[in-house]
Specification:
165 residues, alpha+beta, Tetrahydropterin Synthase, Chain A, 4 strands, 17% strand, Flagellar protein FliL
């Protein structure tokens, strides 16, 4: 009988050894998860708070969230453009655009560009700006007009909103 008991004990691992193996694997998996989480996690909130404290006073919105589009960053937000389309004339378009200047923004030039964009949008028909391709053509046309008007001082035209009603 002793031969049978020793054979069974050598074939099946004890419960203590199984628990020890599971505990070691759990610790290794937890450590690996902690390491990967530390590498992929966003920076702590203290760095973001310090960056927000360094922003100028006029660069914060009503809720205290820093605004990116400020003249200090070379970006001028133009007044919204609301006008009717050339055809069909009962359709209206509302467009909000921001201009990114290379260097110090020129507000007078931005106003001229605003008027030029408003005049151009009045000549566009609904069929010309329908769909993604039409919107891309409109963006390209506006960018080209802004480049001509600014002499290359405006590096980018950013469409904030575009609504057709």
């Amino acid at each position: 009988m002793e031969e049978i008991d020793s054979a069974q004990s050598s074939k099946s691992p004890s419960t203590v050894v199984t628990i020890a193996i599971v505990a070691v694997l759990t610790l290794v998996a937890g450590g690996g998860g902690w390491l990967v989480g530390g590498l992929l996690a966003p920076p702590p909130a203290t760095e973001k708070a310090e960056a927000a404290a360094e922003m100028p006073a006029n660069a914060t919105g009503e809720e205290g969230i820093p605004k990116i589009a400020t003249e200090a960053n070379g970006i001028v937000q133009l007044a919204p453009i609301t006008t009717n389309l050339a055809y069909p004339s009962e359709n209206w378009v509302r467009l909000e655009v921001a201009l990114q200047f290379d260097g110090i923004p020129d507000v007078a030039m931005a106003e001229e560009i605003h008027q030029d964009i408003a005049a151009y949008v009045k000549t566009v028909s609904l069929q010309q700006i329908q769909g993604p391709r039409g919107f891309q053509y409109l963006r390209d046309d506006v960018q080209e007009r802004v480049d001509l008007r600014s002499g290359g001082r405006v590096t980018k035209v950013m469409f904030r909103t575009f609504v057709i009603q």
